[in-house]
From TrEMBL:
It comes from Pararobbsia silviterrae. Residues 15-255, 266-511 form the ABC transporter domain. CDD domains: ABC_Carb_Monos_I, ABC_Carb_Monos_II. Transmembrane segments: none annotated. SUPFAM superfamilies: P-loop containing nucleoside triphosphate hydrolases. This is Sugar ABC transporter ATP-binding protein. GO terms for cellular component: plasma membrane. The lineage of its organism: Bacteria, Pseudomonadati, Pseudomonadota, Betaproteobacteria, Burkholderiales.
């Protein structure tokens, strides 16, 4: 990324719409210190840094979710100190967070207009017709026009939920929009639609703070970039002046290459096998095997059935037919629940770490101890010394940034929360490890830490399965990649066989075939 050819034109100097001066935040220790930053009308300011660098804390302060310990802010020429997200939104400052702010039991339309439901004049009843019409307009802006506005949000995948959250924040008056890792679960088409909205908002004078670890995205849409490291602002400048190497070095304080050595591995005999696994049209007749010491990747578009497949293997979702086998040679298992899967040596690191992987109000130690009761207990009671020892072992191994092992997980950055989930399963020492989007929302430095961790587990003879939306990630770490499309595993590539184009072509092939069959059946 050299920047100049792809970076948007620089905007002329203007009066800042938002200024932060000396902003700092202290919990058990400082997580943000002395940040000075200005936001110009109609610009995209990229905000980047490692997990734990302070990006989300700064954004939440601006968005009214966190009160700063030090410093002041000015918004549109007036002192600005929102006491809640609602107050910030009323003033025109909106934030799309990694943690989705949706009510799962309500419909898409109800979530979009929850605070401004249309009423029938004179009666006070909700006008369902108007609500659906307004929702369709909002949904079309972000490419959700094929969905029914009356669909409950809980029936959507994470990627579609993310687009609903973005659509919600584009409704009404918006002067400052904060996007925190908005594309982590989106397809290329959805990313393009989002960026079209970003350009539209810029032309309307809306200022955007764009948080992402995907550096090519920052080059594509940002005017300026601000880099945080260890809670301090280390650099601010024109995006055109920054290369990828410069950004990464400033983020992590060290050089990181584009290749990774996973070490010498002895890939052995088939150890884990899935045969003809099926559930309706979501997952259809999927079969694959993974050898001892092998890293097997699963690629595909959002909605292709990747997450559903992992959940079925783990016993979290029911299956219509098919078997899961483990051992050398693989022997069929009886898995009716996640408890069965864990007892027989299968672990799942879920894509939804907050909803399914963590107890956010509990300590790091308590979360690491989940599923590891035997390791931290004595005579059926949790032993504090054993829990602390386990915690220190995994905090060190995973390089988890925290004030102590007793810090609540909810206070950690998204990447460090993910490390807690992974650390718990490493302690459990399962033979098969299913990773569903293991580096979603994780910075460049931490990604390489996790890649090295995957390599270490493979060297121990584990069978590793990695689901990822990032093709380059899979191409970097995997020995083979299977591609899912429209619920089917359509093709499997060896390392010397794949290209990015061939993987993408396979990902679309199932949908093209399904559309062809539908057209054939249509009179």
């Amino acid at each position: 990324m050299t920047g100049a050819a792809h970076t948007p034109d620089e905007r002329p100097a203007a009066t800042p719409v938002l200024s932060v001066t000396g902003i700092g935040k202290t919990y058990a220790e400082p997580v943000l210190a002395g940040v000075d930053l200005e936001l110009i009308p109609g610009e995209v300011l990229a905000l980047t840094g490692e997990n734990g660098a302070g990006k989300s804390t700064l954004s939440k302060i601006i968005g009214g979710l966190v009160t700063p310990t030090h410093g002041t802010m000015t918004y549109r020429g007036q002192p600005y100190a929102p006491t809640s997200r609602t107050e910030a939104e009323r003033l025109g400052v909106r934030m799309v967070m990694q943690e989705l702010n949706l009510l799962p039991t309500l419909t898409i339309a109800e979530n979009l207009f929850l605070n401004q439901l249309p009423r029938i004049k004179g009666l006070g009843w909700i006008s369902r017709r108007t609500l659906r019409e307004d929702a369709r307009v909002a949904m079309a802006r972000v490419g959700l026009d094929t969905l029914d506005p009356d669909t409950p949000v809980e029936a959507l995948g994470i990627g579609h939920q993310q687009m609903v959250e973005i659509a919600r924040n584009l409704i009404g008056d918006c002067r400052v929009l904060i996007l925190d890792e908005p594309t982590a679960m989106l397809t290329g088409r959805e990313v393009d639609l989002l960026f079209e909205q970003v350009e539209r908002l810029k032309r309307a004078g809306v200022s955007i703070i764009y948080i992402s670890h995907r550096l090519e995205e920052l080059a594509r849409i940002s005017n300026r970039i601000a880099v945080l490291r260890d809670g301090k602002l280390v650099s601010v400048g024109r995006m055109a002046d920054y290369t990828t190497d410069r950004i990464v070095t400033q983020m992590v304080g060290r050089e990181i290459g584009e290749q990774i050595d996973l070490g010498e591995r002895a890939i052995g005999a088939p150890m884990f096998r899935v045969d003809h696994l099926t559930r309706g049209t979501v997952v259809q007749d999927v079969s694959f095997e993974v050898r001892s010491g092998e890293i097997f990747g699963i690629s595909g578009l959002i909605g292709a059935g990747r997450t559903e497949l992992m959940r079925m293997i783990f016993g979290a979702d029911p299956t219509d037919s098919g078997t899961v086998s483990l051992g050398i040679p693989p022997q069929p298992l009886k898995i009716k629940s996640p408890v069965d899967a864990v007892e027989q040596g299968i672990a799942l690191i879920t894509e939804d770490r907050k909803g399914e992987g963590l107890l956010l109000t509990q300590s790091i130690g308590a979360n690491l101890s989940l599923g590891n009761f035997d390791a931290v207990s004595r005579l059926g009671v949790v032993d504090g010394q054993r829990e602390e020892a386990l915690s220190h072992r995994q905090i060190g191994a995973m390089r988890i940034r925290s004030s102590s092992w007793q810090q609540p997980v909810g206070e950690l950055s998204g990447g460090n929360q993910q490390k807690v989930v992974i650390g718990r399963w490493l302690e459990h020492d399962c033979d098969v490890m299913l990773f569903d989007e293991p580096t979603r929302g994780i910075d460049v430095g931490a990604k390489f830490d996790i890649y090295a961790l995957l390599g270490a587990q493979a060297r121990k003879g584990k069978a590793i399965v990695v689901v990822s939306s990032d093709l380059r990630e899979l191409m970097l770490i995997c020995d083979r990649i299977g591609v899912m499309s429209a619920g089917r595993l359509v093709q499997t590539f060896k390392r010397d066989e794949w290209t990015q184009d061939s993987l993408l072509a396979a990902a679309f092939s199932g949908y093209a075939k399904r559309e062809e069959l539908l057209n054939r059946d249509t009179p």
